Amino acid sequence: MFDGRDSAKLKDQKALKEAGDSWRKTSTDSRWVVASTGMEGDTQKDLVLTQARAMVIREYLVENFGFDDSQLKTLGMGKQTGANMDAGWGSIQILIFPAVPKYRR
User: Fold this and answer.
1) What are 8-39's pLDDT values in tens digits?
2) Integer CA distances (angstroms), 11 to 1, 44, 60, 85, 103, in order
3) Sign of the four-CA dihedral 8, 14, 15, 19
4) Spatial separation of the C-alpha atoms in residues 8 and 12, rounded to whole Å
5) Contacts of 34 (CB under 8 A, 6+ apart)
6) Residue 23 vs residues 50, 91, 92: alpha-carbon distances, Å
7) Is 70 helix (H, G, I), strand (E, B) or coil?
8) pLDDT (tens digit per residue) in 39-97
9) Which helix (H) or strand (E) holds 62?
10) pTM of the predicted model, to two decimals?
11) Which residues contact 79 (CB under 8 A, 6 or more apart)?
């Protein structure tokens, strides 16, 4: 999805296009883009990298699908065990939280 292991520059947006198309069909209060890396590398650099990756994905989705940017949050997790360890790149998760009905008193 990115140009390199230490890059936050998007290379392949195919998965993001599929996610954006799917999101258009959902009614929700919030959406989250969560990025993490594997356990190798510098801890502080990986934290900054995952924050940057989450923001790049957020910007792509807002610009290309017209999502309300106040409903699209980001979280860069840095190093996480089990984060696609085979590739060593980490993972990107797109989480959707359903709209909560508002009740009147």
Assistant:
1) 888 878 888 888 888 777 766 678 899 998 88
2) 5, 24, 12, 20, 44
3) positive
4) 12
5) 54, 74, 75, 77, 92, 93, 94, 95
6) 22, 19, 16
7) helix
8) 888 999 999 999 999 999 999 989 998 888 888 899 999 998 765 554 567 888 888 77
9) helix 43-65
10) 0.81
11) 36, 37, 38, 39, 41, 43, 46, 47
